[in-house]
Design a protein that fits this description.
The structure is a homodimer.
Chain A lengths: L8 H4 L2 H4 L1 E7 L2 E8 L2 E5 L1 E4 L11 H6 L5 E3 L1 H6 L3 H6 L3 H5 L5 E3 L3 H5 L5 E3 L4 E4 L6 E4 L1 H11 L3 E3 L10 H21 L6 E6 L5 H13 L5 E3 L8 H12 L8 E3 L5 H9 L4 E4 L1 H7 L2 E4 L2 E4 L19 H5 L2 H9 L4 H26 L3 H10 L1
Parallel strand pairs in A: 4-14, 5-6, 6-10, 10-11, 11-12, 12-13, 13-14
Antiparallel strand pairs in A: 1-2, 2-3, 7-8, 8-9, 15-16
Helix pairs in contact in A: 8-9, 9-10, 10-11, 12-16, 12-17, 13-16, 15-16, 16-17
Chain lengths: ~375, ~375
């Protein structure tokens, strides 16, 4: 099916607000600009995750200082607490959490399917039990869109099913359901100031991934995502799937690789035409006392850091590295002081945001592959 | 004994570095400047407490933005963890925790005496068990000074004994011990870039307080503190003790009321010639979901705030009140997000720092009593 043939294709187009410009291309790596009602997103971009309407342990002012543009928040969590209707009443998610720049909400699908025993899937949607109080709820494509419209992020994600990567039969069924649900999401959508991104599924199976990419591409949406990766498969399998999908998704639309945040995966993703990434990794590692660097992780509880006057990374320009020693960070962790999570989150987010900025610069200067090699050889 | 008669008086003088200027006086209330090696402290001043070399849930950058000058840290805690020798090796407390402005360390006395069953007092010092691992330690006046010299704060406090307020006999003994220990602290002190403040004790007994104030005053120290208040006695009793002590402590030296941070106590303290206050109250209340205002406290867990779009205080200029609703703060608390402690700490510290600034301004404009009435009538 060609891009313009799908009967819903016209509805998928939101070009005036959400246009994407590829400024430079170097191999398959692209530097672009995605326009949104809350400002431009320069790509490649890494989006910090603010699960419950806050990027954990960080103020929005600190996030702005880090140069973050796009921030992700979670439909499942906000639907349960404080409730999407309350967020709408408070003026929407941007205003509620005081993030004036672009935002993206996921569909709730990934969290609901992760509940395992506590959820039941049918063709129409998913019934599940809240992790907070065990109360029963139901998500459908229409309900996910209604919630996301209440939240009001610039980018909404289609309600999809993420299957275990190696079960072919399950992946085929989940993919078909994901496609049917994408059409329903598009029909349910009412707000012109929000873009809907579709999601390619298909596990580790190249033919399923190709079929899914062709279907999603046919809707001519303002952006397209790749889901169901970094969920247990090998890095080689992940990169192989990106190779399949990249060739089939429209070049003029941003490509978003969901839930991926390891530095080498960002590099390998951009190499394969990915523009947007998000991941809880930097803030989660921070709360587990680990500092991310481009050459590996430091566990700051380690006794070897007791007398260490060096910052986490001498070459890092973040607030934490400019002002605090490893010995001090280790002390904060040992003393169970919250500041350790804040300072490590700042550093870890800076590492990925800065990597994205450097990748963009390398693409603009047509030296992405050598830049990537330099980083990976470190 | 006149101020200059005490044989140690010369040693107590550090005027070139730690001089105090009273800029304006309004009744007994004073606006002043205390010079220190890390900058000037404009008084009246409220000092946030950074118990374990961090003001809990706040970065030093946020503390600077709040306009804090003097920050307090705790000898007992830092001696046990990470150890004062490590702090010295790391360049001292200012550098370790990245606070470039004035700092004060307490003597460890208050914490050690609070250990109740886990400590034993003799004339020479105190033997106690660590709250962290039960290991046995000993603090003496000399040891407290050695630790505080390793920490390197601008202001050190004498090692004192804080007795239960109503036990006259105990207070008399504790006061005499406190005086003997003050002399030993002064003899033990070696660094010219640190000031030693003495501490007046004496419970709720005017004659003991007067005796103690006269003794401490006789040492002609660069500053004098009042300890053992806000520990269970009534506010009227506290204010009565301030009246006794204020008249006897030298007018040309700053007066520091230890461990007091309720807004009405700051006002009543300044009214009675106090210049410096410190308290864990604003940050501790923040971690217990309470916002301080000049008209009382708000417990933000309260269900009545669920839909409340107002900030904590419309008249407050802090980062939290400029950007976040009560409903959002309540959501953060319910969702157990660390950001609630950060945002409430910012607000509560701002409340006391701003109150101190406004008191200073009112004194400079010779309208302190009417300012105080306006605040207390709210």
């Amino acid at each position: 099916m060609a891009a313009s043939d799908h009967p819903l294709a016209e509805q998928g187009r939101e070009k005036p607000i959400f246009s994407f410009e590829v400024i430079a291309q170097d191999g398959r790596a692209r530097a672009g600009v995605l326009h949104t009602p809350h400002g431009d997103i320069l790509t490649p971009v890494f989006a910090p995750v603010g699960t419950q309407a806050t990027v954990k342990a960080i103020t929005p002012a600190q996030l702005e200082e880090l140069g973050a543009s796009l921030v992700l928040s979670n439909t499942y969590h906000l639907y349960l607490r404080p409730g999407d209707e309350l967020v709408a009443e408070m003026g929407g998610l941007h205003r509620f959490m005081n993030w004036p720049r672009p935002m993206l909400t996921d569909s709730g699908g990934f969290q609901v399917f992760s509940l395992a025993e506590a959820r039941k899937i049918d063709e129409d949607g998913v019934t599940f039990k809240s992790h907070i109080d065990g109360s029963q709820h139901r998500l459908t494509p229409e309900k996910s869109i209604a919630i996301q419209e209440n939240l009001g992020a610039d980018i909404m994600m289609a309600f999809d099913e993420c299957a275990p990567p190696y079960d072919r039969e399950y992946n085929q069924r989940a993919m078909q359901r994901t496609h049917a649900w994408l059409e329903r999401c598009l029909l349910a959508k009412t707000r012109p100031d929000q873009a809907l991104f579709g999601i390619v599924q298909g596990g580790v199976f190249p033919d399923l991934r190709a079929e899914s990419a062709r279907f999603v591409a046919s809707l001519d949406l303002p952006g397209n995502a790749i889901g169901g990766l970094s969920v247990g498969e090998s890095k080689e399998e992940m990169y192989a799937m990106l190779d399949v999908v990249e060739a089939l998704l429209p070049a003029g639309k941003p490509r978003y690789l969901m839930g991926v945040g390891a530095p080498d995966d960002l590099l390998n993703g951009v190499l394969r035409g990915i523009d947007i990434f998000d991941c809880v990794l930097p803030t989660r590692l921070a709360r587990h006392n680990a500092a991310m660097t481009l050459t590996g992780r430091l566990n700051l509880v380690n006794a070897s850091f007791t007398h260490n006057q060096r910052p986490i990374d001498e070459n890092c320009a973040c607030y934490t590295c400019r002002n605090f020693s490893r010995a001090y960070l280790r002390h904060l962790i040992n003393a169970k002081e919250m500041l350790s999570a804040t300072l490590l989150s700042i550093h870890n987010l800076h590492t990925l945001l800065e990597l994205a900025r450097q990748m963009r610069q390398a693409i603009l200067e047509a030296r992405f592959e050598s830049f990537m090699k330099t980083i990976l050889m470190k």
